[in-house]
Specification:
This protein has 162 residues and is an alpha+beta fold. The chain has 2 domains: 77 residues, Roll (Ubiquitin-like (UB roll)); 65 residues, DNA polymerase, domain 1 (Orthogonal Bundle), CATH 1.10.150.120. The protein contains 5 helices and 5 strands; from the N terminus they run ββαβββαααα. Helix 2 packs antiparallel against helix 5.
Length: 162
Amino acid sequence: MSTHRLSFTLNGTKHELEVAADRLLIEVIRDDCGATGTKLGCAVGVCGACSVLVDGELLSACLLPAVFADGRRITTVEGLAKNDLTPLQDAFIREGGFQCGICTPGQLIAATALLSEQPRPDHEAIRTWMMGNLCRCTGYYGIERAIQKASGVGGQSPPNRL
């Protein structure tokens, strides 16, 4: 099996690794770099648990060959805040945007990407954007309220459908 030398930035820290050509980004960031907040859920890019930002773009780390990271800037849930919680993380806590926590890192990364692109999203924008992140526990209302609160749109209840 051939190997590749990678140089990338993960959560602000430069990493240089030699990896097998068949390794996935999710494996490298969790196993080699210790960023275990990003979860491996479905392994086919459907659930969103492995969501990361690659140069600011929301992508599924379970689908990306590790070599894709070469020369890029990767952000996982660990990279969202240095010491204090971000307003989004705080809103997830206050609005009950998580329960078991398995999907939470991916939800936070996806919501961060959404708020970066649309700072004040409405219900439909949130619903559409977050469709790629599955949650079996919360029913999504807490997640939507958290995103609204973090965006400054909070205070309104989402419609009784999602």
